[in-house]
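<instruction>
Derive structure tokens from the sequence
<entry> Chain with its tokenised backbone below:
===
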Amino acid sequence: MHLTPAPVSRAVRALETELGVDLFIREHHDVRLTAAGLALCERAAEVVRHADSLGDYARSLGYEALAITVGAFHLSPPTVLDRTVDALRDLTTSNVEVQLVEPDQLPRRLAAGTLDFALVNPTSDCAGLPYQQVAVFDYVLVMRGDDPLAARDHIDWGDLARREVTLPPDTPFPSVLNNLHHFMVCHSVTRFDRIDSLDVAAMASRIRTHRTVIPSLSLEAGGPWRVFDDPAFAVRPFGEPPPPYVLSLAWSPRAPQRWGIDPGDILAAIAGRNPAYNHADR
């Protein structure tokens, strides 16, 4: 669910309070459904099935959607999102709208057909969906402008062996951030500071006030990442960079036929517009 146990437990207890029954038997090393939980689970599954079928039912009515919908996360690099939208507008006369969605919801909404296209980080959630890599961004290390590491041309992992490295919360990007964390641990980085916010401005403030360092997307990602393009900060490449941040365009299986657009044409248009795509052959 891309969540820590605490909010899940709170949500379950709130549901139990609302329904007026206990749904789980909680023991020290075991959690199982009560009789009421088993009965309600069957009904709940039926409700979910009906909810998931609403999209197909709506489309069966024969009314055409007003716009092509492109899903993205609010931190999706705008250099890629804008070019994706522009490519679609060049290839069709239909309106193109952007919907900002939590990353873990993007594959599900594509599969349900409530999104036509989306910028995603390929994970197991994308299994069964067609997608193609469209951009690759390297990680860089950001620090205060007066940090001793700012004098280096690049950062070696030994430079961080005794430093505290700030990372954002691992939701809603568990696979991406877990891979980055694992890579750093394997390269002798052991001290981590977790910040509760995904807001890039909050990360910048953390660097200034705590004199920490933080891995960031390269400045070519644009948008909020440009906050580090300021003399108060220093941005340095890694001598041995972590696995890069990969962004792919995924689409609903129904979208090409529905809108009469060949995904290959979209990808070619994005590639022509997007310098970051040229890194994808590494």
Remarks:
- The two ends are 32 Å apart (CA to CA).
- Confidence is low (pLDDT under 50) at residues 277-282.
- Residues 139-237 form a domain with the D-Maltodextrin-Binding Protein; domain 2 fold (CATH 3.40.190.10).
